[in-house]
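Hello again, I could really use a second opinion on something today. I've been staring at a protein lately and its backbone has me curious. You're getting the sequence in one-letter code plus the fold written as tokens. I'd be grateful if you could look everything over and explain what you see. No rush at all, and the record is pasted right below:
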Amino acid sequence: MARFELKLPKMGESVAEATITNWLKEVGDKIEADEAVLEIATDKVDSEVPSEVSGILVEQLFGKDDLVQVGQTIAIIETEGGDAPAATPAVEAAAPAEAVEIEKTIEAVKEEVAAPQDFSGSEKFLSPLVKNIAKEEGVSLAELDNIQGSGKDARVTKDDILKYIEDRKAGVVQAPKVVEQAPKAVVETPKAAVETAKAPEPVVQKSQQAVPVSVNGGDEIIEMDRMRKLISGYMVASVQTSAHVQSFIEVDVTNIVKWRDKVKTAFEKREGEKLTFTPIMMEAVAKALKDFPGMNISVDGEYIIKKKNINLGMAAALPNGNLIVPVIKNADQLNLVGMAKAVNDLGNRAKAGKLKPDDTQGGTYTVTNVGTFGSVFGTPIINQPQVGILALGAIRKVPAVIETPEGDFIGIRQKMFLSHSYDHRVVDGALGGSFVKRVAEYLEAFDIDRDF
């Protein structure tokens, strides 16, 4: 017999941890190679962890809702013969000892905290590890909500809360410093540090008590699933963070509609991919972002981060009604064929629940197609920490004035609205309006004779 250590696999270069949501196998169950053992969740994507070997599950080192770091051993599988390298005695002994130590720590926290903190009212996603540290150190819910997280979507990480506790012990009780999240080239002077420490605590709007909802006997009460709770938190946080402003522009896409109708059959036959309007729109957005790099930024406290790569997020509705935003990496480097393949691949895998955690990371600007559901235009909420999001409205046949050298006349044209939401903290109307106008210009100048 050999003991195989099942570790949390690397899920993408920007994903460092995941939460266990469900064990699919229990201790004593037989497992086949490549069979899923447990389900995990990152900030936005749920996935399964398969076993690399066949054997018997003899130990689960973490429980449901525990936070696990990439590379950590999460289970022990006993194999027959030499299917897996035998763990060294030191490793075998370390796992139980570590588990006992964790149990002791949890028990100590339970004894020290007479009235356990309830963090269910927080609008932030708080990992079990952060909650345990907060309880152990007596960090209140209000303090947690004021900590500026450095994780994905301002999520509070282990390092963030430990730094806050260190600052609090040193007498700096105000909101945690954000300078550590700034680019490494920026060094805070002692004078600036003193000013930061003495600065008045920012005014934070406290969450108001929810208005009581009356329920009668015919109403159905349904608890939000994990993803819906996360989306809810992200949307509220974005509105509270960014000063949302919208610009709208109508675009004549008659040439694009005619061109697609003309080539879509040949495109699918040659490339094996369906040609939708989305990759054409994404191509125009990527070009406009190169022209206006001020839209391809993010905000970190009082710092603006100019992004080197153009990574386009494409908001997609899931079959269960939830929303996810897979990302097309280096979108400006793709031709129309490459863009179509990327859009179709991410869209299909999103619907099938096959996205990997890294597929939703690193976006610098987002596009959402509200026209899919018949909406003429919309006012989308910015995907933090980005500063802009573009909504594509439905394409409609409308009467329009057509200018010609012989004079003006009324004709039928294919038109759509572009709705641009941007963060007025760092993007003014001139930039926000010029950007969406440039997207419109690229679409209206589409060459109806171009090849794909």
